[in-house]
Amino acid sequence: MTSKRASKSSASSPRSKAARSGSHSAWSGLAVWALLSMWSAVAVWYVQSQGWTLWYGDAEAHLNIARRILDSRAAGYEQIGTVWLPLPHVLMMPLVAVDSLWRSGLGGAIVSGFCFTLAGLFLFLAVRRIFDSTAAAVTAVAAFALNPNLMYLQATPMTEPLSLCCATGLLYFCARFHDSQSWVDALLAGLMACCGTLTRYEAWVLLPFVALYVLIAGGQRRWLSALIFCLAAGAGPVYWLLHNRILYTNPLEFYNGPWSAKAIYQRALDKGMDKYPGDHDWPKAWEYYRAAAELCVGRPLAWVGVAGLAAALIKRGWWAVLLLALTPAFYVLSLYSSGTPIFVPHLWPNSYYNTRYGLNLLPLACLGLAGLVALLPVKARGFAAVILIGVAVAPWVGYPRKETWICWRESQANSAGRRAWTQEAVEYLKPRYKRGTGIFMSFGDPTGILREAGIPIRESLHEGDGPMWQAAVARPDFFMWDEWVIAISGDRVSQAVNKLRRGPRRYECVRIFTAKDSPVIEIWRHIQ
C-alpha cells in the first residue's frame, strides 16, 4: 500500500510533470520540423521541375562562388572574395562539389531548404516559450511557412532562408536565456548571432541590442553572460574585417571598395542615373519599404500582424518585438542612406529590384499574429488560430497565381534576357569547346554559361584567379593564352581582347548575343 502511494506521489510530483511536459514539447517540436521538411522538399522539387531555381541572378552567383572555391585555377580560400559574406557559400561547398547538384542548382537549394526548416522550428519554439501557448506558436509558424514568397526563396540558392534561420535562432536562445540566465544559452545566442553576421550585414546591427538585453536579463552572472555573448557574436565581424584587411589591404573593402554597393551606385550616378528612391528622403524610404513588405508578406498579414504587436507587448513580449523590428528598421535606414535600393512595380521607376527585402517583416508579423492568439482565453485560442492563419494566407488563396508572388515575379522579369543569351551561348559553345583549351572571362553572369554547358570553372581564367587574370587584362599580348573569350561588351575583358584583333596573336569575335534590357555578350576565339 505504501509503495502504491509512493508511486502515485512520484507520478504526480512537479518534477514528473516537468519531465512529461518536456517530452511532449520535444515531440511537438520534432513533428513541426518534420512537417516543415516535407513542405520544403515539395517546394524545392516543384521549383526545380519548373526550371526556376536559378532565375535570380544572385542565386546563380552564390552557387558559382561556392563552386569556384573548389573548382578554379587558383582554387582555395581567396576565392571567397569580398562584399558578399562567406557563410552561405561555405555551407553550399560540399554539395556544389557534385557536378549534378551544381549544374541543377540543387546544391544551393538544399541548403536553403534546410535553413528554412530550422527557421520555422526556431520560430515555433521561441513563440511557444514567450507566450506559453502552443496555439500561438502554431499560428506563427503556419503564417511563416505558407508564405509563397518565402517558399520560393527557400527553394533557391539565396541567402534569405539562412538569414531568417539565424534571426529566429537568436530569438529562441534569447528567450531561453531569459528563463535560465545560463551562460550556455548566452553562448548559443552568440553563435546564432555570429552566423547571422557572416550571412547578411543587417545582422551586425543586432549585436549591441542583444548584448544590452543579456545584461538586463542576466541576473547575478550578467557580466559573464554578456562577455560570452559578445565574444561569440563579435567573432563574425572581426573575422570579416581581418579577411578584407589581409586579402585586400582595406578592412572595409566590402563597404567602400570598387565592387561595393556604394561604389557601384556612385559610378551609376556619375553616368547620369537618377538617385535611388528614398535616398536621403525618410518618407520615400518608408514608403518603398512598406510597399515591398506588403507585397512580400501580404497586406492582411502585414497590417493584422503589426497591429497584433500591441498584444505581444501586453503579453510581455517586448524584447521579441524589438529584436524582430530591428531588421526592417535597418532596411528603411539603408534606403535613406542610399545603401540599398528597392524598386516595386507600382512606384517609380515601376520595376522590380530587391523586393525580397520586404520579407524581413514576416517574422515580426507572425509574432504579432501569435500575440493576438495568446491574448485570448485558452479555450478560444484554437478557433482564433484557424481564423488568423486564414487571414494570413487570404491573398494567396484568393488569387492563387504565381504572378502574385512578388519574389517570383521579380526573378522572372529580371532574368528573361540573361536566360535567353545564356541558352544561345551554351548552344554555340558546348559542341565546340574542347577541355583544356581555356576560356578568358569575367566572373559574374557569364559563369552561368559554363554551368549550363557542363564546363568546369577551372577551365576559365577569371578575376578570382588574381595575378593571372590581372596580367591577361593588362597585357593580353603576353599573358592571354586561352583559346576562347567570353566578354560583356565594353568590360575589361572585352577591352583586352579587342587589342588582339590584329597582330601575331589574333582573336576574332565569332558570336554576339543580345537580349532586351540585357548587356551584349561576345564570344571570341583565337584564330592565329
From TrEMBL:
Domain of life: Bacteria
GO biological process assignments: lipopolysaccharide biosynthetic process
Transmembrane feature ranges: 25-47, 101-127, 186-216, 223-242, 317-336, 357-376, 382-399
One Pfam family linked to the record: PMT_2
Compartments reported by the entry: Cell membrane
Domain Glycosyltransferase RgtA/B/C/D-like: 108-232
Annotated GO CC locations: plasma membrane
Protein name: Glycosyltransferase family 39 protein
Lineage: Bacteria, Pseudomonadati, Acidobacteriota, Terriglobia, Bryobacterales
